[in-house]
Amino acid sequence: LKTPTFDNWQWEDAEIMVLLQVMYTDLDFISTFNIELDVMQQFLYEVYRRYNNIPFHNFKHCFCVTQMMYGLIWLTDLRSKMDSIDLLIMLTSAVCHDLDHTGYNNAYQINARTELALRYNDISPLENHHCAVAFEILEKTESNIFRNLSTEQFKRIREGIIKCILATDMTRHTEILNKFKALLPVFDFSNKDHRDVLMMIMIKVSDISNEARPMDVAEPWLDCLLQEFFNQSDMEKLEGLPVTPFMDRDKVTKPSSQTGFIRFVLFPLFIELANLFPCLELGELKRFEEIHYVKNLKAKDTTGKTTVFRHLSVLRFWPILLPCLLSD
Predict the structure, then answer these.
(1) Is 58 annotated in some ligand binding site?
(2) Shortest CA distance to 208 belongs to which of 131, 270, 148?
(3) Which of 75, 98, 118, 183 has its CA 20 to 30 A from that of 273?
(4) Is 194 assigned to a binding site?
(5) Is 207 annotated as a binding residue?
(6) CB-based contacts of 89, cutoff 8 Å, min separation 6
């Protein structure tokens, strides 16, 4: 469960809820924060209920992001560097980060003038909604896993979860990454502002980490993502709204949807995180990046099948990290 090779496709939703509880137990959150098991289970059930049955941003995606966060916490030994309450914030943010996602992104919400866009004044409407739903669940006594904490502790947790979930709005990607890069030369785990930025980076890495998983796990996720994208572009065309270019089924292919994302989003984010944590040795990724290996992702093999995922399996972030995990 701590490794990136974990295959979420082999588990049913009921089993996934048990695995999420295992994570909270394994990180000592249950005992440290006096979380009753029936409350933990009710919380996870409410979370499950509030994820919609859509192709990508569903309960399984919630689990994958949380499982990656869980693995990173162990891999980077954050338990010795940060307070338990910060780790609780990070894991719970991952669990809640896409609650009640509609399957249509912020651009659609704003262009279509949806209820969410109107409610949140076009400012990260989805992410604000995810936060609101999370705290609706936590407002109920029977599902409030923080109910035994002090007022000050709850205030800190609420502030942290909101910061983390809002950080998953990709329009803020460059802003957050630049903040992190600026802090790296002087990064101090005792500095709250520094920790806050790291927590945002950690949930961002976890959120986009599918492309860092083994091919047989990652490729079905790309199929799910493209289906959700195509559903949105179809709706945009139907409603006469601007069509999001990278979602247009008439223009997008699997390789074209991934090459730019991997090169300009995934690589830079993971490499900067590795600069803080030496265990995340990305020398191989840097070498491939320098020789523009990604440009060859559109090559065809002899069967005519696009080899994008075969190449990505060589470029994987996690297999490079796996020896670090196994050496613990």
Answers:
(1) yes
(2) 270
(3) 98
(4) no
(5) yes
(6) 156, 157, 160, 161, 164, 199
Residue 60 assigned ligand-binding role: yes
Token reading at 229: 């994208």
Only one residue has tokens 């983390």, namely 164
User: Catalytic positions, please?
Assistant: 57
List 88's β-bridge partners, or say none.
Answer: none
Tokens representing residue 178 in the block = 């630049």
191 is written with which tokens?
A: 């500095």
Residue 179 labeled ligand binder: no
| Rounded CA separation 104/95 (Å) | 20
* SS3 label, residue 37: helix
Q: List the Cα angle 132/135/138 in 5-degree steps.
A: 160
Contact call for residues 33 and 146 (beta carbons, < 8 A): yes
> Rounded to a whole number, what is the distance in angstroms from the first to the last CA of the chain?
14
Closest CA to 199 of 318, 63, 274, 91: 91
Where would I find the H helices in the chain?
13-26, 29-32, 37-49, 59-75, 84-96, 106-111, 115-119, 125-139, 151-166, 173-183, 192-207, 215-239, 254-261, 267-276, 283-290, 308-315, 317-327
What residues have CB less than 8 Å from 3, skipping those under 6 apart?
A: 71, 318, 322, 325
